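Kindly go through the following sequence and its backbone structure tokens. Advise at your convenience whether the structure tokens fit the sequence:

___
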Amino acid sequence: MENAFDVLRARGFVQQVTHPDVLRQRLGSECLTFYIGYDPTARSLHVGSLLTIMAMATMQRAGHRPLVIVGGGTAMVGDPSGRTEMRQMLSQETIAQNVQALRGQLQRYLSFEGDNGAIIVNNADWLAELKYIDFLRDIGRHFSVNRMLTFEAYKQRLETGLSFLEFNYQLLQAYDFLVLFQRYGCVLQIGGDDQWGNMVAGVDLIRRVADGEAFVMTFPLLATASGQKMGKTAAGAIWLDAELTSPYEFYQFWINVDDRDVQRFLKYYTFLPLEEIARLSALQGAELRQTKEVLAFEVTKLTHGEDEAHQARDAAHALFEGTGEFAGMPETTIPQVRLAAGVAVIDLLVETGLAASKSAARRLIQQGGASLNGTRLAHLEAVVTSADLHDGALLLRAGKKHYHRVVVQ
């Protein structure tokens, strides 16, 4: 079996690594336990998290054991990394609900069986029980405030305001690594490159407290070729939860990616062999749509299952080919009485998720990017009524490829 380090590097995952030669040797000669953490600040992970999930799944396929921390404890503090303002504080009840939801999502990508079966743990199990004075004495003394302030995450937040609560986050994340090292023999933490400072602090803490050797590997922070943050659209985030982003919308996100992103996304978000990816990426012009279809189908299959992927692909084909088949297309139902009274098209664009706000809907119409039943919408004051129904439904479109069906009950 290939060395996991070589596989990740060939697919473009590796950004920064501590002691890369030693880590590569160990990844090629023994089963390592590694971990990544996700703070449960929402009921679902999104496409922005999918790169690290795929890296974790790749490492498990190479024989290593994943530990997933669902951060019920650190979510109560808030990580300042990559943020310009303090994260909204959540109640313990909301955090607990989100933890359960994320557990279910991660099970789609990881195996929980066998010698290297994944384990999901909640850091609230040890962080919530900490005695503050003891923690400061035993753990806090190993951290230099001067050094912490050299990390980019803290430097950026100093300009806008960094709370003392957030300042503790690095200590807590480093302590997580120490606990996992001691309890599970975990020697590697992986994550996004914005976590580098927090992660290296864990390596240092393990060396100081337990005289142990540990490693860190970070992955690139993704933006699309157009400069947009990965997983963000005009209508908002692309979630992994089918109730928040339907399988059809999820499929459409991938099939509509910039041509320049297709090859690297195939490497990141599918398990296709690199030789096959090279062949698909060599296609040009109209044939490139075939490559995008492969990307969209493979990622949707991983996230929502093969049946949903087939249904989303069939619905996309129907629209692309003009056959009028709508199975799998996202739908919104509105009462007949409401439509009879008239509904502002701007409100419908927002309700269906084709626009993130009323102002975004107005811009979409002004720029000629919205249509109803195949006819471009030209007036901001347009009102939709029962007279606009075609076969008992309305077909809204935003841009060239984002469709939504409105049905009446």
Q: What stands out?
A: The two ends are 56 Å apart (CA to CA). Residues 78-87 have pLDDT under 50 and may be disordered.
